[in-house]
Amino acid sequence: MKVGVIVTSTGVGAYLGEQSLKGIEFALEEINNTGGVNGRKVEIVVEDSKTEPAAAVNAINKLINVDGVHFIIGDSWTSTTASMVPVANKNEVILISPIATLDDLAQDDFFFRTLPTIKNLMQPLAEYLYENKNVRTVAFLRSDTPFGVEHVKDFTEAFVTLGGTVVAEEGFPISSTDVRSQIAKVKLKNPDAIFNLHASGPRVGLLIRQAQELNVNPVWIGTYASENDALIKEYSNEIEGLIYPYPYIVDPSNPSAQKFIESFTQKYNEYPDLTVVNSYDAFKILLSAINSAGEDPYAIKKYLLNMSNYQGASGTLSFDENGDVLKPIFIKEVHEGKFIQAQ
Fold first, then answer.
1. How far is CA 305 from CA 320, 326, 328, in A?
2. Deepest of 33, 58, 88, 232, by most Cβ within 10 A of its Cβ?
3. Within this chain, do residues 83 and 186 fall inside the same structural domain, yes or no?
4. Does the residue 336 lie in any domain?
5. pLDDT at residue 225 greater than cutoff 90
6. Does residue 201 surpass a pLDDT of 80?
7. Would you state the torsion angle of the CA atoms of residues 312, 315, 319, 324, taken in this order, to the nearest 10 degrees?
């Protein structure tokens, strides 16, 4: 049985694509080692979206029209996933994204996701900064992407409602490796905190290093993508104190999560990050639905919408009426080279 997989193997999202594929392949190995699905081995057909919406559309069309798949996991990038959703709906193909967060994707259709919406992530983050860190003014340094723009909109709405003020917003191309001019403009506003909305992975640290070179040292805010091994290895000093929302805390009472972490760490010699566990869960949930409901997309959709308290590697989860995941959200920060829970 074929399952399509679309990841950002190349482009600025390559790190996330690599992590997503690790989680999916790990789940695939587990499933096939235990008999597959309804007695059938599972095969994945992998396509590269290149972190480009047009390439993502080509990839999903190829999977549907050439490979004949009816179930797809992907993408590992938000804007490319958004470009694929209309194609999935038109062809009545189940599409589950491990990390797409855009609010606009919340609709009653064939699209599901295992990461909460940006709006759901921003509300507790704004509350924590205002109430626990005494942050009253915030500036944004963001990539020119829907991901960056929507984070600004949702955080601003929550923060201003609390009594906070946004004093600056500077954008830059997502491929930028030098944002010193934007940082210099933000510095003039002297904000209590700066929301670092660079792409993902190490570039988050690069931006903060450039800010420190310009003697800019506010409270730093990040997204869920801040937590990854590459960032902590390359920029542990620069990102000390970075605060971000995270919908994943290992539950010691969840044996599935404990077993997954131990097995994955042994195989890859790294702790599974959010992209890994969400990709693993997305694949396992899809195959569980097929195993129980058969291969009709409508039956799978119904099964997923009615699924309650699934015990996954990323925690206990369910879906709402729009296929958006329901998960608790935690506030975390970087402390002495480690990602720790702040709340």
1. 7, 11, 18
2. 88
3. no
4. no
5. no
6. no
7. -110
